[in-house]
Design a protein that fits this description.
single chain, Rossmann fold, nine-stranded mixed β-sheet
Length: 206
């Protein structure tokens, strides 16, 4: 019987902040783990991430059996999954930071450098910004969240775009399909809005 929440530790996320936010949102059993067997037994999974796409994908792939366990539990068995920041970006087909590098390929699209049309919109995109739902999704509601990123997810299928934000042009704020969702912003830094989103994720039964 699946049990607990697996928070993936691959050296690429502010794990303690995410762990504390999940607990504040109501999670009673958060397992910070680099063990594929724990992932296989988890009821739901969170993949955080801070840094460059290639380095994060490399670190995740360097854990023996981890990518296989994620594919098995999330794709094959449909466990609820949430990717945060680079953890969301890794669901793409590829990332274009420091060359082109393959991602998990869970949601079609590429991760490319932000190119704001407005010269006042600086890169990295840093600070509070609106989250505007595009396609209805139980996790995503209108509000303000905290962003910090220089690359954005360009979805191949508009149906997988859950929310956008504006930073000198339209930027992907959230993606989703089936049992998987990802947010470009940081729920753990987004105060009440972020905690409410994490609470919805804990209750989500896709």
């Amino acid at each position: 019987m699946p049990d607990g929440l697996a928070l993936i530790d691959y050296g690429a996320g502010n794990l303690r902040s995410v762990e504390n936010a999940l607990k504040a949102a109501g999670a009673s059993d958060v397992r910070v783990t680099a063990d594929p067997d724990v992932v296989r037994q988890a009821e739901r999974i969170v993949l955080p991430g801070v840094g460059a796409f290639a380095a994060c994908m490399g670190a995740l792939s360097a854990i023996p059996g981890m990518v296989e366990a994620l594919n098995e539990r999330v794709i094959d068995q449909a466990a609820p999954f949430l990717g945060i920041c680079v953890g969301m970006q890794l669901m793409a087909d590829a990332g274009e930071e420091f060359g082109t590098h393959p991602g998990l390929g869970w949601i079609g699209g590429t991760v490319a450098k932000l190119e704001p049309h407005d010269p006042q919109a600086r890169v990295p995109h840093m600070g509070w910004n609106d989250v505007v739902p595009v396609n209805p999704h139980p996790l995503i509601v209108p509000g303000e969240a905290y962003f910090l990123h220089s690359f954005g997810f360009r979805v191949a299928d508009p149906a997988t775009l859950a929310a956008t934000t504006d930073h000198g042009g339209t930027v992907t704020a959230a993606i989703a399909r089936d049992n998987i969702a990802g947010v470009q912003f940081h729920p753990e830094k987004s105060q009440a809005y972020g905690l409410a989103l994490l609470n919805r994720f804990l209750d989500w039964r896709p």
